[in-house]
Amino acid sequence: MSHENAQTNVHAHDADASRSATDKLFRRFKSKSVEADRSFDGSALIDVCGINHYFGTGDARKQVLYDNNLQVQPGEIVIMTGQSGSGKTTLLTLIGTIRQIQQGEIHILGQPLRDARPHEINAVRKRLGFIFQAHNLFGSLTALQNVRMALELQPAKASRSAQNQRCSEMLTAVGLGERINYKPKSLSGGQKQRVAVARGLVHQPEIVLADEPTAALDKDSVRQVVELFQREAQERGTAIVIVTHDNRILDVADRIVKMDFGNIAQDTNLDEAALLGKMLKRCEVFSQVSVSTLTTIARKMKRDEHAPGDRIVTYGDVGDRFYMIREGEVVVSQPRDADRHEFREVARLKEGDFFGETALLTGQTRNAHVDALTDTITYSLDAQTFNEVIAGQKSLEEEVRSTVFSE
Question: Sorted alphabetically, which Pfam families does this protein's record hold (predicted)?
């Protein structure tokens, strides 16, 4: 049903009665809000809350991280992207206990890091795997000996022969089986980086923190490394956070976190983004747009939670945002008369319904209130973000405009 004419932009799109197959799949994925759950119940291996960080002191003090929240569950691979200087590595080193927390809270493997004692920090570190952008190998040690150092730091040490066997297997897994006895000076940059990857994984850590682990690798080596990451996540439930600019490995991610000027600006569940793209295609405005393009748009959508009674859209406001209901139910109300003293219910919308779609292009004022009836989750897309997404994609704009203005 439609409650939108040429002068309005609150549109109610009835969901298909036959959408059960898509909906069942869609419900399997719960999007991660940038605002993380603050219960610290231990379910997340990495739990970051309200992290601010500063460099320097006095007049030279500069804030580099702003109110960051992040959770990483067992078995998740999270890729962190963003421009140079956006704070990615700083946040990674805070998670990895390499920097001291100044403001906010971080729990790693259930252990609060702020004000933790040195022996508690050391116990956490032994359960982490680090892969640094600079490989940090010891030049006097062979590849096997460099990797074995990670095992020698563990509280329960295996025999030397068992350690060597484990290290040899890990070096073989990264394609260096024939170079286990080579020292760093005899290895290429990419080979040194693969030794660093093997060292970060050999002790089977519960969390892996990697800073540009594939930047120096060729295509085949990249695949070897990311397949190792996937196996660790899938088989052992390892949580993996990768800071990278390497677009070749984005396909391995469960989530992509984008940092912008010291803040996590986007936290996108890729499975959910793909499904959101399919849901968007059911909206008439986007019906002629390819699913791949819609998935790109879905990654830019903002997730919001609304309590019963919350007003999502206000009559008369500028219409510059499109909404899709992920969960819950809303009521659409319009004025009874020209005085607009009283409003009457004209529709109820639920999961999978849309409203405000032509606002992306027209910017007209709203012709109705939209209020949450139940606990509701919406995904929304503002006009500015929409324009950023379609920059350089003239075909998308033409597709949408032709759909909206074809009448």
Answer: ABC_tran, cNMP_binding
pTM of the model: 0.64
Axis-axis angle for helices 189-201, 143-152 (nearest 10): 20
Domain of residue 239 covers: 46-269
Same domain for 259 and 351, yes or no, is no
CATH number assigned to the domain comprising residue 389: 2.60.120.10
- The total of other beta-carbon atoms located within 10 Å of residue 110's CB is 13
Residue 212 lies in a domain: yes
Say if CB 209 and CB 95 are below 8 A apart: yes
Decide the pairing of beta strands 321-327 and 354-355: antiparallel
- Tens digits of residue pLDDT in 101-138: 999 999 999 999 998 999 999 999 999 999 987 788 99
Q: State both tokens at 387.
A: 């324009």
> Considering the domain boundaries, does residue 128 fall inside one?
yes
Quick check: helix, strand or coil at residue 265? strand
What's the pLDDT tens digit per position in 230-243?
Answer: 999 988 999 999 99
Contact criterion met (CB below 8 Å) for 207 and 229: no
Pair 296, 246 in one domain: no
Strands 77-81 and 255-260: parallel
Do residues 67 and 110 both lie within one domain?
A: yes
